[in-house]
Structures
1.
Amino acid sequence: MIDSHIHLGSIPNQGKNWGSFKEYKRIANKIGIEKYCVVPIGLPKNFSDNSTPDNESVLKENNKAVIPVYWFNVFDLPKEIDKRYKAIKFHPDIGNVSIDDKRIIDFTNEINLPIFVHTNENKEYSNLEKVSNLAKKINVPVIAVHSGSVTKTFFTIDNYTFPKNVYFETSGIQYAIILKKIYEKFGAKRIIFGSDYPFGDPRVSLAMIESLNPSKNEYKLITEKNIIKILKL
């Protein structure tokens, strides 16, 4: 299996660091996750001063299981990125920037790598309509991290038209019924297993996938084959 979305680092809170890459690797080894797409942890400072998380920390990991993903920030756009990165990620909460902002479109087209985008259906700038708008203006796969996340998604997803380059990731989804609706509308070929560790846990995401009662082939698509195709691994 391949976990398409984890963070390298811990969550600092009240003098304690929650989660660690060491802990994640132990969990992954136990449940059979062989590779993981890794972005740096987004710290509170990054969201308060619109700064970019530490992408270099991911490349420093000497681990063949790591698939590096570059977290980009429209307030600090690089002219180029290291060729070891297999995808890019955008989090609209840094600066409250809309997913379909022209800067996102232009940078994605320039870099020409699949893009992961954080989504929250309760926020106008990061809802799934903005994902649809972005996907229609670029030529690479778009992975909707959290698939809208909140209950509202169950009702609003019917209002949007998604091109075929949009995929839905499994972490941070509030209720199983949201993923079930995505599965019924788009099928297993458009769903990507991700955990969002340390905020989430791969065991929780896998349980959510299992609630779909997928066939063996569908389970393989969601947990491995789709992301292999998207990232050309």
2.
Amino acid sequence: MIKLYCIFIFLLFTTLSFNSFSATSYYKCVTQEGTTFSQFPCDNNATVYKVNTTINQQVGPKVDYTKQLNELERESLLAGLQAELRSNQHKLAILDRKKDQADYKQQQRLNHILAKEDKKRIAADIAKKQKVINKNYKAQINMVKKRINKLQKKIDNYQ
């Protein structure tokens, strides 16, 4: 019941704030189920209450928050772009490590004790695989570097 009363009073005052210098009446009805408040009488025993407003609605100074909101949005975008830039720089480091591991693995194949013919054959195979590794590495590096350049340009635009 108290919640209902509080909600009613809140709604009453919010409607009153739109109508300055006006009188509004409401009805209080006490029934077996409890107390209710309404704009209309619920029975013949309803009690009428009148609310008079005499104070002008207070209005604060007009403030344009557009600049602050734009600044917050810019900072948020900038933080996201910088995080993505760091992520791409980490990708470059990971690609470098993977290429070094692949190169090392190929070089280890030559370190085994082998006959001269086997060494020549394996060296030729390693050279082919090194070309494939380098080609894939360059393609991946170029893709990540292009993304980094785009991100850097976006970051420069926001700063």
3.
Amino acid sequence: MWYNNYAMYARTKTFTNKDGSQRTYLYIVEGVRENGKIRQKIVANLGRIEDVQDGALDKLICSLARFSKKKWVQAEAAKIMVESAREWGTDLVFRALWERLGLHQTLEGLLAKTEISAPLAEAVYAMVLNRISDPLSKRAVNEWTSEIYRPSFDALELHHFYWALDFLTAHKEIIEVELFEQLKNLFNLELDLVFWDTTSTYFEGNGPEGLAEYGHSKDHRPDRVQILDQRRNPGGPSGISREHRRH
């Protein structure tokens, strides 16, 4: 606090009574120059400190804070209570890409041919969005959606995610074709030449039942079960397809 170019501040002064008890007073003092020296001049006696601490001091501070550009803002900000905070940017960016790729239209079109009324398209989108930003298990995704600002996520329940996976498996080929057609149009893909690459990867232990087998190993580990990974790429920014097969 400044007044007449000199600092003003609070200080206390304690007095001892005849019976040995003490009383403490709170003052606002000002530094003044007298005879070349800085001395304290009492500007205001705010009273005994235990009296003003009952609430009068807080009211005075709040009242003075209104005239301070910095302290007033801080005081008002302290009154703001944040009841909830959700992430919005992830959905804002990737939903636009999701729509551009036609995935929403593809999924809703397939669902329209069934009697399914559950929000499976939204469950698929939630799982993809989670995989992009913070990969979690399906059970954890069910809790993660509460951290994202997207009102339609509020209707999702745990069983929707497992149901959505079954739906994707049943319509995998159709979805891949629709997605590729969108990519081909967006990126002007030419299919005059398609690259096809294969590689293998092995598992420690038994590996996935019914998928991994023993065979020729590029990793020089014929003692481990493995799968064959195939990828087709037209030379553009995205592959046509990728599959895992038994070797």
